[in-house]
Description:
19 helices; alpha/beta; 25 strands; 2-enoyl-CoA Hydratase, Chain A, domain 1; 37% helix; 6-stranded mixed beta sheet; Methionyl-tRNA Fmet Formyltransferase, Chain A, domain 2
Amino acid sequence: MDILLVASAFNSLTQRVFAELTDHGHRVDVVLASQGPDPVRAAVRELRPDLVIAPMLRTALPEDLWRENTCLIVHPGPPGDRGPSSLDWAVAEGAQEWGVTVLQAEAVMDAGPVWAAEPFPVPAAGKSDLYRNEVSDAAVTAVLTAVRRYAEGSYKPRPQTDDSVGVVWRGAFRQERRRIDWERDDTATVLRRLRGADSQPGVLDDLLGREVFLHGGHPEDRLRGRPGDLLALRAGAVCRATRDGAVWIPELRPRKSSGDPAPFRRPAASVLAAWEPSLGLPEDPAPLELPEERRTWTDIRYREHGDTGFLAFSFPGGAMSTDQCRRLLAAYRQALTRPTRVLVLGGDRDFFSNGIHLNVIEAAADPAQESWVNLNAIDDLVEAVLRTTDRLVVAALAGNAAAGGVMLALAADEVWCRTGVVLNPHYRRMGLYGSEFWTYSLPRRVGPETARRLTTEALPVSAASAERLGLVDRLVPAAPGAFPAEVRRLAAELAVSPFLDARIAAKAARAEEEQEPPLAAYREAELARMHTIFHDPEAPYHALRSAFVRKTPSGSPRPLTPPAGALR
């Protein structure tokens, strides 16, 4: 069918629905509703779609649109749930199970007849992590079911007036409900509030006499102090005491009225240092190999099972700053000192990597120079993976990856991917040529013509399509919570494979042969292009980066969405 997606942003769920519907043979176009209803009406008139689907919509569809066309809304709540903050309420109320409903648009918000619904379990995770994983899986299942039912023509959607549907209206989840009382709230309550706002909108609070939004929350089992006090720093995060424990908060976002010139999310320690350089908080580094029983936060961790090492990393939003890249490289080199035959890279949940850290770059005194330093730091990491010859390296993607993060994965010998993952193997949307040895790794895997198409069309790629193209070696059909155990099982099988020694020997033999051109030549050529972009104040990258970080219109003619013919 011809399907038009209407979305407020081309976010992770919209990208996945786009990619999955395309995989199923549908012709899919997208129009962004952020500029008002007129572009949506124009797209419908021009394309005359068989079906309109709204995967993520912050505003109501125009009445004339849903009266004249079948319009399906993806609502992140079970049948009968209504309101704009469904997931916020699910996290706040400690729901064990939630759901996604695909319903037909009508006058009353979220009240239309149901075309499909899919339940999902709610883990102890942040709202954005939940949205990109369990919600995304359920939404795609429900959308595909609804599209199939619509195409068959015989299905009658179930009205929500049915006695089996319990209607519950939940209003907007506002900041007054998110507020933390550090003197009275226990750690479980604090964590629930932080996790319910980890990406957006954050929890409004006061620190050092300024209003700031707290982003993300993780328990700490040893550090203690007076409730509300700042206790320590670790890897850019800050530890804060609760009534009965403490929590780690990785990121802060200064309120625009706080006077901070960079009112956007970035590592908590850097925000505090800008306000109070002599804060004097101790560094409390976590060991790379933490005991299993520890309940504390660290963004890099190493574990070993038999002949397999697991180097896990999880950075907020998937962005990797200069410091994060350097610490991950140090951890990687340490992992190489261990007597393992297989080394697995990647976190247990959510993002693998999205490349360089645009927020940290935007906040830097010299963004061009910080861009350059950050890029070299991630290139050092990718090169170390490419030059590893004494064991097999596996990149295990539990969640989405983009730009340099995809190229980091491609540096490994094998790429394993959870079936719900979406890849964006390109740099074009940020006005960049790219580095991370992509000109070597990408054509080597998919061929030069497909590499050119992927980087110029700049469209999201589903895990299934990535496997067909050769970007991914193994699909792991596991639920988000089951992915780590399945990766451990597969890695254990690989470590005892009778073919493993031959594969490692072949790696070493290839490395001894002089490449033509040598690996360093790829890096040099890529960095030359990127240096020119970074240090050209008129390059679109600077406006696009600033717009992305500050969530404002870019003012750039470069498209921020897929090109005409694929997305309008």
